[in-house]
Amino acid sequence: MAVMTPDLRAQALNLLLCGDPAAKAAGTRRLASGDPVDTGARFAEPPGIPGRPVRPALVPFNALQRRSAATAHGRAVLLHALAHIEFNAINLALDVVWRFAGLPEAFYRQWIGVAREEALHFELLRAHLQTLGHDYGDFPAHNGLWEMAEKTRRDPLARMALVPRTLEARGLDASPPMKARLQAAGDHAAAGILDIILRDEIGHVAVGNHWYRHLCAQRGLDPVTTYASLAREHGAPRLRGPFNLPARRAAGFHERELELLQQDAPA
Prior knowledge:
By secondary structure, the chain is mainly alpha-helical. The chain is about 65% helix and about 0% strand. It has a single domain, classed as Up-down Bundle (Ferritin). The longest helix has about 30 residues, at about 190-220.
């Protein structure tokens, strides 16, 4: 008797509820993008989303330690912050897969691919953090990425606009100066991990851009004016430069969007 493979969206929800970081990352890496997908399934939202460990403690952004790379401790704080971002990114990709029904099958398969890469990033950062005598959970962290996920939980258009195209795209801008700081401190292994993350994140933001424009076209909306409206409605942060324009172009941002981004950035 054949054993039915669980629906990919149901698998994503189960992993999202997992509170153990190692188990969540490993399970996500094992997801097979070729498994069956029920695009029309609607799941009742269970309690406990997202599953997360007791530590790190979540605090306001302005309560976090300064992330200097000049000392081993400072690099540990910085790498912990990056690992926390990647742990949240696993949750965000898994959440997109189970939460939003009725989208093309390719949508779910692409976001499963994103989740697998985010899990790899988390594992790489955590392993390097351990070489510095620390582990994920040792330092406080903030919850900004997931807070935006909560704000956009009812609309995939808002989610695509304000998580991958806004918050995750900030990582494209932050990566080059962060890599330079790590190289200056002699941590070439960490700098190499950032190269992997930047390469993959360009693709992740590109996935967000593609589906944002798909949903805009489906609803007869202009992508530029709609983005400005959604950013205001949901309180998205104003992004500060300098911007990694080559990476943003590679991720699918149009020139008009980049012009407006630079015009609207705080002085």
